[in-house]
Amino acid sequence: MEKLSGKTVIVTGSSSGLGRELAYMLLKEGAQVMINGRNPEKLMETRQHLASGGGRVLAFSGDDTQPEDCRNMVEKCIREFGGIDILINNVGTGSNGLFRDTIPEAVNKVLTTNIFGSIYPTYYALPYLLQSRGSIFFISSLAGIHGLPYNFSYSMSKMALTSLAQSLRIELTGTGVHTGIVYVGFLHNGPGKRVISGNGTLVPATKRPDRCTMTMGAAGKHIIRAIRKRNAVTVLTFLGKFLFQANRISPLFVRKVLALSTTRMKLNYTPAF
What we know:
Layout (H helix, E strand, L loop, with lengths): L7 E4 L5 H12 L3 E6 L2 H12 L5 E5 L5 H15 L4 E4 L4 E2 L8 H29 L2 E7 L10 H20 L6 E7 L9 E3 L5 E3 L11 H14 L3 E3 L2 H12 L1 H10 L1 H7 L5
Parallel strand pairs: 1-2, 1-4, 2-3, 4-6, 5-8, 6-7, 7-10
Antiparallel strand pairs: 8-9
């Protein structure tokens, strides 16, 4: 297992939620961490909170869907820390709405954030990860295993990350750079969580029953373990593992189950990060 002490890690989308939890755990492991977010005030509040626990933490306020912001983020990390060992592409947004009720502009917002928000950081960090023989991790979702009703645009974006991770894994064979993807299950939503609705506006995320969710802390522990082990594919929660295996054996069965659960998906499923 890879030791994280002394490693330099960039965690995108880390001013709150799962990204913030991962940054906290990485610092506890002895890594030095750069966090990232679009809201400068919220980001600095998070940096101060993380730094109070010890360890070196930098903050970069920028939009991961903008190539210049991502280039500047990576360059700041190189200037301050001297290299990059691990990139965790965690940035993302959720969605809800049936296809027939969703305007194309809303789909574009989701795809831009969830796909290009991972492409740009990876592109600019890759030369330095090649030098360090480091790791790239994509934080995905159960929606990246099979398309989910009422969340088609989110599912499209997370399946794109599956393809990206698979392609990079092949392209980077022999370079020493590891590529991993984590399929996260339902997570506890924070009180300020918002998702993109069918008309393109931000709406509050649906609160899910506790029995259906995993805490950020529990998810973070599994992800840190996957990073240390350099796992290629990690699937969280019993439901996620069942969906992953069932989809490989009988996609028709999975489709029928999901078709029967469309109403429940509408009421209880909103992407977790």
